[in-house]
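Table S2 (continued). Query chain:
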Amino acid sequence: MQPCAVGDLDGDKAADAARAVLVRTGGTGQFWSVVFRGNTGGKPTYRAVVDPGDRIPVTSATVAGPKATVIWPTRSADAPYTH
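Corresponding output:
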């Protein structure tokens, strides 16, 4: 299961979400994104997306007040991926 966090990110007292998404298109690529959704009248509303990159897995996500914390490993562009 991909990391997901729910909480009030914009102060409107409605639950918003930060969700890790993994896309595999065949081959060796594993493209991770974190999608942020607001809650507008009880319906999910796109807010933003962050792309950590190819083969950089999102390991956790939390929401505390108006702050989302998303964790993924860092490595230099020329470093091999090890899992």
